[in-house]
Amino acid sequence: MKTNTPIRVRYQETDQMGVVYHANYLVWFELGRTDFIEALGFHYHEIEKQGVLSPVIDANIHYGKPVRYGEKATVETWLEAYDGLRITYGYRVLKENGEESVSGSTKHVIVKEDSFRPVSIRRSFPEWHEAYQSALEEE
């Protein structure tokens, strides 16, 4: 399972050279991840109402060809790994012509909001667990 999130590069996302500032790709990863989660049938704000959060515990990014102001791009997002506790999302940012600009991944856990203690998705949220398992099987 993959989702594709369209991006229109805004001026404030670029540096003095007119190239997307490197940290903004992580923001685009978040947009893609949010769309992916919604495609699974969930919404962050609903998840957070249950007293849990999903912090990033690791991020990897590889920069290739720059995206520039005024261009359009697409963030392709998929589930790279899931073990009942940790979730790893994969990403590719594609330029309008289909060239890969950036690739990367982010790893997350679900934690209790009040203590930041990890929560087993498999045991505490079986519907999420099933959705993640299904998404991995669609690869």
UniProtKB/TrEMBL annotation:
Listed EC numbers: 3.1.2.-
Name assigned to this protein: Acyl-CoA thioesterase
Record keywords, A-Z: Hydrolase
Pfam families: 4HBT_2
Residues forming coiled coils: none
Keyword flag Hydrolase: yes
Organism: Thalassobacillus hwangdonensis
Origin superkingdom: Bacteria
GO MF annotation, one: hydrolase activity
